[in-house]
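SAMPLE LOG
Freezer: B-3
Tube label: C17
Construct: single chain, 150 aa
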Amino acid sequence: MSIASPLTLRSGATLPNRLAKAAMSEVLGDPRTGAVSEAMVRLYERWGQSGAGLLITGNVMVDPGGKGEPGNVVLTDRSDLAGLRVWAAAGKAHGARMWINHAGRQSPRRLSKVPVAPSAVAIWRGIRANIWPRRPRAALVAAEPIGAAA
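STRUCTURE (predicted):
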């Protein structure tokens, strides 16, 4: 088995190879609105040209209260889809797949008094307890995903 060989995931999706760009915080979203910026699109186009089979994004928020840091992309409703589509197309233009990452309960206290996470389970706080919120708010399950056909 070669690093260049395709990899089929449990979901049935197939990656063209086993190379991945790990999640890192680009902080290139619009600082006021959280919209996808032209700089973010250009960056993912370049990473897509690298030949990696998977591009894992930095934090993409589904609620403005869940930022991991300033400059995160925030997608809250259908009005954000145009920018998301341009961003995804740039990253996928050369065959890569994209996986969106979300900070969830790890959103720092200075940015979120009550972050949004898949469940209301608090993070283990240990010695850095002062930076983590006490308990996140569980995300609501939408009746229809944002990207579903209207």
